[in-house]
Amino acid sequence: MKVDDMHFKLKDSRDAIIRSPREEDVQGTLDYLVKSSGETEFLLRYPEECAKFTPEGERELFESWEKSDCETMLLCEVDGVVVGTSMVTWSNNIKTGHRARVAIGLLKDYWNLGIGTKFFEEMIKIAKSNPRITQMELEFMEGNSRARALYEKMGFRITGVALNAIRLKSGKFLNEYLMIKEF
């Protein structure tokens, strides 16, 4: 699903845009994936796991999202650089089509500038445009208090926990929390 471009000002007054990915974003998105994966333990991949992502694969993914009626990727661009991505997906199945899943990631240098809030506003708008969707769902890792605060600000609440769902390289286990926002 393709979305309209959304221009806005960051808290530091720079211009930003949230939009659907385009062909020219392939390398920038791959660079973003590697960099963001090394900046925090709270994403589901390490930088070396990004080697499986290829320009051809990204192009195919971009094309499939644009053609899809039940999933989309958004990216945020600042000064020509991909600084974050988010996704919203849902099923067309009768039993689960009321549930939209969301995910978000952002480079550390762009935290606290309002991008996460803008991503969520757009994802909520997309989900609410489908009359079948009655709730949005996401997960976050134990210890990620910044993400939790954003999600709660956007109306999500914790509804469950998966014990020891995440295992870090160090061997340490973290719980993963499920959050839901109902419409």
What is the fold named in CATH at topology level of the domain at 6-133? Answer: Aminopeptidase
Q: Output the strand order for the largest sheet.
A: 1-2-3-4-5-6-8-7
Overall geometry comes to globular
Parts with pLDDT < 50 across at least 5 consecutive residues: none
End-to-end separation in angstroms reads 21 Å
Structural class: alpha+beta
Strand residues, percent: 25-35%
Mean pLDDT: 97
Topology of helices and strands:
Blueprint: E1 6-9, E2 15-19, H1 26-39, H2 55-67, E3 71-78, E4 81-90, E5 99-106, H3 115-128, E6 135-141, H4 145-153, E7 157-167, E8 173-182
Parallel strand pairs: 5-6
Antiparallel strand pairs: 1-2, 2-3, 3-4, 4-5, 6-8, 7-8
Question: What does this entry look like structurally?
Answer:
There is one protein chain. With about 180 residues, this protein is α+β, with helices and mostly antiparallel strands. It has a domain at about 5-135: Aminopeptidase. Helix content is about 25%, strand content about 35%. The protein contains 4 helices and 8 strands; from the N terminus they run ββααβββαβαββ. It has an 8-stranded mixed sheet with strand order 1-2-3-4-5-6-8-7, with helices on both faces. Strand 1 and strand 2 form a beta hairpin. The two termini are about 20 Å apart. The mean pLDDT is about 95.
